[in-house]
Amino acid sequence: MIKIITAFVLGTLLFAGCNDLSTEAQANMTWKQFKKSPTAKCIRKRESRNKPWVVSSNGMWHGLYQFSVSTWQNMGGTKYAWAASQATRKQQHKIAFKTWKRVGWSPWYHATNPCY
Fold this sequence. Notes:
Elements: H1 2-18, H2 23-28, H3 31-36, H4 38-48, E1 61-62, E2 67-68, H5 69-74, H6 89-103, H7 109-112
Antiparallel strand pairs: 1-2
């Protein structure tokens, strides 16, 4: 019983570490602060090895944050390029930040889970 409770508490603390900012702090965060966050850095490392031009082997996921083309389009990325892999790092950070502001880390759950 103690082991289970300990694991649950640790899991909660690790999860909270990703979302430790207050709602107000999140609202006031800039895309430059976002790109420097430990979780965003971890996502980039896991998703693309920090290479902005990367495209997945099946062609569905593009860029630093491995955006689908539809997410890239829906978040306004096409003002920069048709897909994330064709955009600059700065442009990809801006769209990732916009995505995070709207839906949190959920699009990158599989990548962020080990980052907590």
